[in-house]
């Protein structure tokens, strides 16, 4: 049975604070568990221990990261027209706000995307 990381506050337990649930892995001991964290918790920055804020229930280190990217399923989302990927970086290309697909590198003008072009 997988470990469940408990909500740290009564507001979260009551569902008053939006939270994400998913599989996490500890970078220190490789333990895998189901983690719960408030939306906005930095859980992917593996370059800095201070930003990895999921505490491992096995070794208690704060080196837990989510195993998968966060994807919203109940609201409209965009996919790359080339590879159907859903992870993008926002960049500036010659002062034009641009989205770059993290999977294939395809670029799209962000203004065109949001204006429906």
Oligomer: single chain
> Which percent band covers the strand fraction?
25-35%
Helix amount, in percent? under 10%
Mass-distribution shape: elongated
Discrete helix count: 2
Residue windows where pLDDT falls under 50 for at least 5 positions = none
Sketch the major β-sheet: 3 strands, antiparallel
How many E-type strands?
6
**What's the alpha carbon Rg, rounded to whole Å?**
17 Å
List the helices and strands and how they pair.
Elements: H1 10-13, E1 19-26, E2 32-38, E3 64-66, E4 88-93, E5 96-101, E6 107-109, H2 110-114
Antiparallel strand pairs: 1-2, 1-3, 4-5, 5-6
Keywords:
117 residues; mainly beta; 2 domains; three-stranded antiparallel sheet; 2 helices; 6 strands; 8% helix; 28% strand; elongated
Describe the structure.
The protein has 117 residues and is mainly beta. It folds into two domains: 10-66, no CATH class; 72-117, no CATH class. Helices cover 8% and strands 28% of the residues. The strands form two sheets. Strands 2-1-3 form a three-stranded antiparallel beta sheet, with no helix packed on it. Strands 4-5-6 form a three-stranded antiparallel beta sheet. Strand 4 and strand 5 (96-101) form a beta hairpin. The chain is elongated, with a radius of gyration of 17 Å.
